[in-house]
Amino acid sequence: MKKTLLTLTIATLLAGCNGGSDNKASNTTGPDSKLNYTLSGEVQSNYLAQDITVCVDLTEDWICNPSEPTTTAKSGLFNIASMNKDILHARILAVSTLNAADNQSKAYTNNTVVLAAPPLQKESGHIINGISTLISANMGHGLNPHEAARDVKAKLEKIGVTTSSDLLANLGDPRLATIDKNIQLLSASAKADQRSRVIATLAKELPQQKAFIQAENLTEQTLADTVNQLEQKSMPRLVGNDTGVTQFFNGAVLTDTPAAGFPLQDANIGFDATDKNSHSGNGFKLTKLDAKGKALPDNATEWSCVRDERTKLVWEVKSNDPKSPRWKKNEFALQIKGGVQPHSEDIKYAQKTNKSGINTTEQYQDMVNKEQLCGINTWRLPTLNEQFDLLDFGSTAKDADGNLIGLNTHYFPNTEAGYEGYGWYWSSSFMHAAYQPKDMHVYNYLDQVSDSLGDSGVQNLCKQANAECDYPTKMNVRMVSQGK
User: Fold this and answer.
1) Which of 85, 170, 290, 387 is most enclosed, with most CB atoms within 10 A?
2) Order of strands, sheet of 77-82, starting from the edge strand that comes earlier in the sequence
3) Looking at 176, 208, 234, which one is the last position of a domain?
4) Contact 332, 475 (CB under 8 A)
């Protein structure tokens, strides 16, 4: 069966404009006997016991491990010294038990609380509280510290919470005191193996969690219910597509029948074996939709979208009309509302081949939503995992250049290799690495065309603030929606 694609991690990134995953930077990790690095700051909380352990989370597991640089905060103040320069690029944790500072927190006395501060690549002035914990957890969505803070700020303002212009510089803003406290109580209510996921999901769902984060009094039951709710939302979808592989390997070639001595192959298990679809020939269940979103017969010759009956996602189908903005060969610069903005060179690069006047992904998203393609106005960029789930590894279709196409061409006939030649389509998935320069965007790509089908890597995008952009980036786009 198809496994969930795990986002790749990298240890170093090119500090220039952009480049691929094989770029190497100078050795900047590990112990350095010539220097002693320090981290200092303050744990700001009225709800923690006096004994507060502060450590550098080098293993990125939200736990203070014995091998990690550790100290004990005195009156909230801490100072950590280490010969390992990596401490400047990792989150800082504060671990203690909840103190019964008021009636609300009495129920959680002696519960472990873990708070965090994001890695800001500086030695002093670190603040650890509930708000910094929220920002640090938000980085789990592939954001750097500054993007994560801006995202939290934007979501808070959406629900009427006014914050300082620079949230990272004003983590102790008294206007956020109630939210700060409730995040600390949430941390005390969550188990160690779910804490980071729960708080990361809270960061993602802030507008929907308005009542919780602004509550003056939270009952024990409310906290427990919120933890369970956020935990459930953090879990990946359990229903997805199979690989599409229906043949068996006999040691030399693929055959249509099982081979003795080669048991438990992919074709033996999963939807491809137990729930094969007569139209697709494997476990994929796909339905063609017209421009209004109406289901069409499988032999329809014109359609605009495809609904995945397993995941219930609706996918855009690219057009074969060169005059359409949805033309299969049109490529775009990446632009995400409230997030990534394209470099001017990215836009110029896209304009060389895309003459539609719609040259960024945000412009394209706005267009298909305004037109209500297939009766839908909630189109968005897919995640990398959503793209991966759509790949049919049993596909044998090839394009005019002989490249293997990773989507079922009966439903997705206009899949392009793109300028890189690997079928890269923009997604909303990013990652953040320890030595990533400030405001550098690191994009996860997925090979959807070519013999390297399913391979993934990272691409550094040009920083908008840089005057130069030596390697501008453009890609195709295929929008997705949860449907009507």
Assistant:
1) 387
2) 77-82, 37-43, 126-128
3) 234
4) yes
Residues 266/254, Cβ–Cβ less than 8 Å:
no
Among left, alpha and beta (phi > 0; psi -120 to 50; other), residue 369 is alpha
Burial pattern 139-173, b for ≥16 Cβ within 10 A else e, equals bbbbbbbbbbbbbbbbbbeeeebebeeebbeebeb
Q: Give the domain extent around 422.
A: 284-484
pLDDT digits (tens, 9 = 90+) for 18-64: 444 333 333 344 444 447 899 999 999 988 888 899 999 999 999 99
Bridge-based pairing state of the strands 37-43 and 126-128: parallel
Q: Given phi > 0 = left and psi -120 to 50 = alpha, else beta, which region is 125?
A: left
318 in the same domain as 213: no
Residues 216-275: pLDDT tens digits? Answer: 988 888 999 999 999 988 876 556 888 878 788 888 888 888 888 888 777 777 777 777
Are 356 and 467 members of one domain?
A: yes
Mutual angle of helices 177-189 and 195-204, in 10-degree steps: 140
Q: Which amino acid is at 437?
A: P
Q: Which two tokens stand for residue 25?
A: 């930077």
If asked whether residues 224 and 116 sit together in one domain, one would say yes
Query: Are 328 and 220 in a shared domain?
Result: no
The last residue of a domain, from among 218, 234, 250: 234
At 189, list the tokens: 């209510």
Q: How many Å apart are CA 30 and CA 432, to the nearest integer?
A: 19
Question: Where are the alpha helices (H) located in 195-316, listed in sequence order?
Answer: 195-204, 210-213, 220-234, 271-274
Count of CB atoms within 10 A of residue 227's CB? Answer: 20
Residue 453 lies in a domain: yes
Could you tell me if 291 and 185 lie in one domain?
A: no
The answer to whether residue 27 is domain-embedded is no
Same domain membership, residue 48 and residue 190:
yes
Q: Alpha-carbon distance 70 to 78, whole Å?
A: 10
Backbone angles phi, psi at 148, to 5 degrees: -60, -40
**Averaged pLDDT for residues 407-419:** 93
Q: Within this chain, do residues 227 and 354 fall inside the same structural domain, yes or no?
A: no
- State the Cα–Cα distance between residues 259 and 27, nearest whole angstrom: 49
Q: Is residue 184 located within the same domain as residue 307?
A: no
Number of helical (H) and strand (E) elements in the chain, helices listed first: 11, 16
pTM for the structure as a whole:
0.64
Nearest 5°: the CA angle 239, 243, 247 is 140
Which one-letter amino acid corresponds to residue 405?
Answer: I
Residue 312 lies in a domain: yes
Q: How many domains does the chain have?
A: 2
